[in-house]
Design a protein that fits this description.
With about 775 residues, this protein is mainly beta. The protein is built from six helices and 56 strands.
Length: about 775
Amino acid sequence: MRWAFRYPGTGESGCRRPQYKTMTQTTQKFRAVFLAALMVFSVFAGTVAFAGTAAAANFDETDADEQLDSAGPYFQGSVLFLDAAELTAGEGESEAPVESGETLTLRSVDGESTSFETTINPSTDDSGEEYYEIDTSNLDAGQYLLTDTDGNEVNIASSNNQFEIAEQSLSAEFDSDSVNTGQTTTLSVDSNRGSTFDLRVSSDELSATELQSAFVNEEVTTDDGDVIISGVQTNNKDEFDMSFSDAGTYNFTFSVEDTTAEATTSIDVEETDESYSLPNNINVEAGDTVTFPVNMEDSDTADIVIGSESDGYQVTATVTDTDGDGVANVTVNTYNPNVDNNYGVTAGDDDTEVDVDTTEGNDNIGVTGILDTANYDIEVGPENWYTENGAGSSDISTLAVTDASVNGAQTWTAPVNADSDISTEDDVVEAIEDGTITQGSDVAEGDLAVVQVESSGLAGYIASAEEDFAENGAEGETVQEYVFDETNLDLTVEQENPSANREAKTLAPSNVDYVVDDENNNLFLIIDTSDSNLERDGETGLAFESGDQFNVTLDVGQGTDGADSELPEDSVSSTFEVVDRDASLNNVNDDDVVEVVASENSSVEGESSIAPGSEIRVRAQSESGASNTFVETQTVTVGQNGTFNASFDFSDLEQGTNFTLTLNDQDGPGFGSDEETIVYDATIVNGTQGGDDGNVTTTETGTNNTTETATDDTTPTETSTPEETPEETTTGGDGTQQTETDSPGFGVIVALVALLAAALLAVRRDN
């Protein structure tokens, strides 16, 4: 190799022998240069890297709806955004940034395999930064991923390279198919999307302005003839009030702005033909309450005016039918109808709202005390019909307030624990109709004494007292203390026949439950004789005992505490006697044995002092040690006249078969003072008997096998053999366990055959 050179300092060139350097020297210099360059490049690269990290594509300059940075789900129709500078591909040591300008591939995922969908080319924003957009409008619901040109998966989330595309559901419907002009209806929108979205609403029958005005109390915007509802979120805002001024059929299309979700619905708008009406006459006794209907057509609100200035009582109120059935029920309380009590006007049920006009300057006139007996006009019409510019009333009726009266009292009785089933007016009426409450002044220990006070004019006062208790009742007070306040209603329950040299037992009014039957002008006082809550001369916790006689007196308007009463003065009373809780059976012979005939419907009849409607369990059981054991039980109901009847199948029993009959008090504490059950000896006698009074409620029975018998002929005769039924063990009223069966055993011939068979078997075994 030749080297061209110049002599140092002369600039002349020439040829000379080359000067060679050693390999070590060359390597050391190269290494120094390389390390220096590496340092420079590393600083430069770090600067570039820092600048690249800081720079990012501007999301706002794109058409994207949201950034693809998680596993989703993202809804069909949305445009997804990816910042190219933040994307990497591969995993582990092979993970590297996606190269600038690289085309990505979108692939659908099906289990372990993927399929090509489309390619995604990068775009640049105004600052030159690259980004990708994925339009999901044509993608099916499912899992997807991105790959680079080398087939490496693109990392779009730290936890998963895959993301989900889901279909957004959308439904829209009105709460009714039709609505009247000027009325408000509710549009309900539902979707599986939890995040907020903008909803476009369009209708060919309405202009943008008309469509915008149809949404009541909703801020909506117009866009190209449509309406946009912003920020819809179906998990907390999915109902919109709408109203239409013109009749017609309107079709609506609803579409989500950033997805493909769409729904349609329609509504018929009919011309309003409002009408209002009242019953012809509304009658109420002074001091009572009355409820009357306000009927409406093509409207759910009406204004009523009761009374007038000349009547000394007047109230104006707006009533609303909240369930849309065309009826609003209004209650008027004639006791203290003043401003503090809403002038006595309230909603008659849960489907009605009443708003009394209490604004300053109104013409309402209240009354303190009981509304006087008189006829008061009631007028009804559209809202503000009574004003100077109003349309006038549509109908008029009369509220006739008549004199109240206290007519008398009488005693009824009801089964133990029945008070839990007779807590309302309807409960009491139903209990009387079905015989759970029956007339009678003898009350078995533990049963209920029910005193009916026939009186009008009390319901309004009681309703007012209950309201006062709800607002002002102190801890430990009872509502009875507000109702029986010794001024308007003074209730006393006192023993009439105390023992010699003993004070009478008394029952505090707070221990007396009550039910108001306003419709039938009754007040029912309920006394539970199973409670030990009587008092005597400072002694408390005393029980109702057999033989105790009590007087129940209600003084109305007597003012016993010195205060003036607002109720008319009157007094009523009734009595009842506590008797033994007992039961007995009929058809008892001189030996105190109940005689029962053998029949398919053998009747066991009896009487009881417990209240009609109570249940008694009657059990028929074979004697202890009998070979033909059986048990049958039936639960019967005590009838109106205190009788009961249990029917058994004793057709297979022979005359002279002895057994026991047990009576068990199903609901109460038991019969007698110390016993829970009553036991009778019984026997089968000749004769015919049938009958079932229909008061049997349950039947329990078991079945024994029948046997084969033989005649004197060589051909055996086989009796009918029912299917075998497993023996069932039950617990009787006396606490003992019994095996139940309904076929009591063997006749004399059958028994002899059985003994003979046993003897032959013993001989066979000996042989």
